[in-house]
Specification:
By secondary structure, this protein is mostly helical. The chain has one domain: Na+/H+ antiporter like fold (Up-down Bundle), CATH 1.20.1530. Helices cover 75% and strands 3% of the residues. It contains nine helices and two strands, in the order βαααααααβαα. The protein has a two-stranded parallel ribbon. Helix 6 runs antiparallel to helix 8.
């Protein structure tokens, strides 16, 4: 196994150049998804949180574990393996909401999972990365630290999930005829 000094410390930064345009695009995607949301389904998720809990367990326990098993089978280089673990340790995003919308799945559950898992990822992504990474790479060569700024993450969730969601739901309630006309082209 090779040297991992490059991975000694890094910070996930949501405020880099070029990210602004991506965030705008994701906000527009979320607005389009929100046009088809039924608020009563959110109440059902709160009333019966089993699906949300199962989704979170799948996201933060099963996906990293299955990824680790795949890594053990494929035996990629340390850098590739750690990249795979990092991706598996991160939460889903607005694109999963978009795909759920296209599939006519439970959009409200997808949006709830995105919001909750993104906020939990501030703690769980570093824990998962450290745990699974140290099982593949010796602890001395791993010697890394992942840092995620909670306030920056919260701001990003509000900007690309919360605000477009609220605007989309309000828009669809106020302009029902226009919503029916623009919903397909926006998707």
């Amino acid at each position: 196994m090779g040297n991992l000094e490059v991975f000694n410390e890094f910070k996930l930064n949501f405020d880099q150049n070029g990210i602004f345009l991506l965030n705008i695009t994701l906000g527009i995607v979320m607005f389009g998804v929100a046009l088809g949301i039924d608020l009563s389904n959110f109440k059902e998720i709160i009333r019966k949180p089993k699906s949300l809990i199962l989704g979170l367990i799948s996201q933060f326990v099963l996906l990293p574990a299955v990824t680790f098993l795949l890594i053990k089978i494929l035996q990629p280089s340390e850098g590739i393996a750690l990249g795979m673990i990092l991706v598996a340790s991160c939460p889903g995003g607005n694109i999963s909401n978009f795909i759920s919308s296209l599939a006519k799945a439970n959009i409200e559950l997808s949006v709830s999972l995105t919001g909750v898992s993104t906020l939990l990822s501030v703690f769980l992504t570093p824990v998962n990365f450290t745990f699974w990474g140290s099982l593949y790479v010796s602890s001395s060569s791993l010697g890394h630290r992942i840092e995620i700024d909670f306030f920056q993450m919260f701001q990003t969730v509000i900007l690309i999930l919360g605000i477009p969601l609220i605007i989309g739901v309000l828009f669809s309630k106020k302009f029902t005829i226009l919503t029916k006309k623009i919903q397909t082209p926006i998707k």
